[in-house]
Amino acid sequence: MKNKKIVFTGGGSAGHVTPNIAIINKLKASGWDITYIGSRNGIEEEIIGNEKIPFHGISSGKLRRYFDWKNFSDPLRIIKGAMEALFILRKEKPSVVFSKGGFVTVPVVMAAKMLKIPVIIHESDITPGLANKIATKFATKVFVTFDETLKHFPKDKVLFTGSPIREELFKGKSQEGRALLGFHEKKPILTIMGGSLGAKKINETLRQILNELTAQFQIVHICGKGNVDQSLQGVKGYKQFEYINQELPDVLAASEFIISRAGANSIFEFLALRKPMLLIPLSRNASRGDQILNAQSFEKKGFAKVLFEEDLTSETLRNHLEALKTDKEPLQRKMAEDSAPNTLDIILQEIVKTAK
Questions:
Q1: Where exactly does CATH 3.40.50.2000 map onto the chain?
Q2: pTM, full prediction
Q3: Which of 39, 53, 186, 315 is disulfide-compatible with 60, CB 3.0–4.6 A?
Q4: Interacting residues of 156 by C-beta distance below 8 A, sequence separation 6+
Q5: HSE-CB of 101 using CA atoms within 13 angstroms
Q6: Once rounded to an integer, what is the mean pLDDT over residues 78-82?
């Protein structure tokens, strides 16, 4: 190929950005020229900045299914974003655009369609979000993480690829993870994370029974920005972090159990690492319910235990953790039986084919 140039887009949460990193690293190694378009001041700007990839911020507006006064102004932001994306794409001249999701992607894929640049979309969740539903109209191909998602997209566009997993996650060293945390080998490590923005109810419930849990586990608590409890600093067997980036592979390698939200990208990473997980999906009050469907799919396949946020109390958390410990081996057996596709290879082949 003469023009090995690609523009990535995706943002609003880390889940719309980190899977792109897995693909970006592979393309870098193959000599591709990579640029990223995201929202101004979004989490994607920081994450992509750490990867030393050129980043362009554009205007973006949220698309809502409910009444809000911003529904009158946000379409103007989307139109403005499309014009900005049009200017960037004309300048960059990529042979393909790869979109991971989030509202910032809509103006980018619209601009790509206007310039007749092929667009590939990757949908993480079982049911597509509104942004990807709209973006599909402008897409050349749509990749999906769950096989259950195939029915939601046109047959001539959709392809089941699975979730792209960052290769560095498989290179983690448990010994280095324990050394970083100051933990020993005599007690299992439980890692708790609530997504890139944290999870208030999970944080509060965990801390209510912290003394009880540290008797059984050494706990890594990734609690989100601004959610570190200073009064608990120095508690033996308990380490708090707002966010873990470079050290995450080592921390996960050292971890025996995981408590997490049910964002698709994260849970597929835990599946690939064979980590028994207790999933506490975002409730329907705080989301469109996609995490609930993700969690139920994993529970049905025997990969995870699920505790709904509406049912989360210190008692139910205690009971579900006990069940997680008891069923550790059956969960790992089911995860080992999973015949996941060779996602990165499939995606890379399709990118090359689409770009041509």
A1: 5-162+341-355, 170-337
A2: 0.87
A3: 39
A4: none
A5: 25
A6: 86
> What is the structure's pLDDT at 282?
87
* CATH superfamily of this structure's domain 5-162+341-355: Glycogen Phosphorylase B; (3.40.50.2000)
CA distance 355 to 1: 9
pLDDT tens digits, residue range 225-262? Answer: 889 999 999 899 999 999 888 899 999 999 999 999 99
The alpha carbon of 240 is separated from its chain's Cα centroid by a whole number of angstroms, namely 21
Give the burial string for 214-237 (b: 16+ CB within 10 Å, else e): beebbbbbbbbeebbeeeeeeeeb
Region 170-337: CATH code? 3.40.50.2000
In contact, 104 and 58? CB cutoff 8 Å: yes
- Tokens 């069940």 sit on residue: 323
Q: What is the spatial distance between Cα 356 and Cα 220, in angstroms, rounded to a whole number?
A: 46
Smallest CA-to-CA distance from 206 within 271, 252, 257 is with 257
C-alpha dihedral over 96, 164, 342, 166, to 10 degrees? 120
Query: How many residues belong to the chain?
Result: 356
**Closest to 108 in 3D by CA, of 198, 199, 42:** 42
User: What was the pLDDT predicted at 69?
Assistant: 47
Nearest Cα to Cα of residue 24 among 15, 35, 37, 13: 35
